[in-house]
Specification:
The protein has 206 residues and is α+β, with helices and mostly antiparallel strands. The protein has two domains: 112 residues, no CATH class; 72 residues, no CATH class. It is 28% helix and 26% strand. A six-stranded antiparallel β-sheet has the order 2-3-4-5-6-7. Strands 1-8 form a two-stranded antiparallel sheet. Helix 2 packs antiparallel against helix 3. The longest helix has 36 residues.
Length: 206
């Protein structure tokens, strides 16, 4: 596979996010019935419609074995074989939920290829993408999410004129008001930040 551990931002003021790392999700495997003992297959990550990395895996009753190639920062390629323990917990309404047991002994659903080995986000100190957002971006993202519930688009410049079919007027009015407040907050936060950004750029151009 290509470049585990070779692609992370070098800025000191931010953490690498989970969105920037290849994720291996046990819920996906279980959903498609790929967690049966003896099953083997491949797991890949697309980028621009093309595969950007892949691993092979084989499932046993109490562990899953990953095989792949990795290199760090332009170093030599290494053949990696990683065994990850599996654990199961009972669900409230029957059935069982599968988990990876990370090297740090945490029980997690997702492991990340942010280094040579797959580890949980705590081991690699990965942040969620939303934690890195500015207030403006966060409010705008929430606004657009609501707009998708209310119409066929999320463009904040296009007015919402009618209620979606099957939605109660009380729900429609509540979401419409919430979307409006979020949009106002996003614009207000941008106005607050603009003088600070201008000062920062001015000071750095001296």
């Amino acid at each position: 596979m290509g470049g585990f551990g070779s692609g992370s931002y070098s800025r000191w003021d931010r953490k690498t996010t989970t969105n920037e790392s290849m994720d291996f999700d046990i819920r996906v495997l279980k959903k498609w019935g790929y967690l049966s003992a003896g099953y083997s297959g491949s797991y890949s990550w697309p980028c621009g419609g093309e595969p950007s990395g892949s691993i092979r895996y084989k499932v046993a009753h109490d562990e899953i074995t990953l095989t792949y190639r990795s290199r760090s920062y332009g170093g030599e390629w290494q053949d990696i074989k990683q065994q990850i323990p599996l654990t199961w917990t009972d669900c409230h309404y029957g059935g069982q939920r599968a988990w990876f047991r990370c090297n740090c002994f945490r029980r997690v659903a997702v492991l990340y290829g942010a280094g040579t080995y797959f580890r949980c986000r705590h081991c690699y100190q990965l942040a969620y993408g939303s934690q890195q957002e500015a207030l403006f971006d966060r409010m705008l993202r929430k606004s657009r999410k609501i707009r998708k519930q209310l119409g066929p688009h999320d463009d904040v410049e296009i007015p919402i004129w009618r209620k979606p079919k099957g939605m109660h007027f009380t729900t429609f009015n509540r979401l419409l008001l919430k979307e409006k407040k979020l949009r106002q907050l996003s614009v207000g936060s941008l106005h607050i930040c603009m003088p600070c950004l201008g000062k920062y750029r001015y000071n750095n151009n001296k």
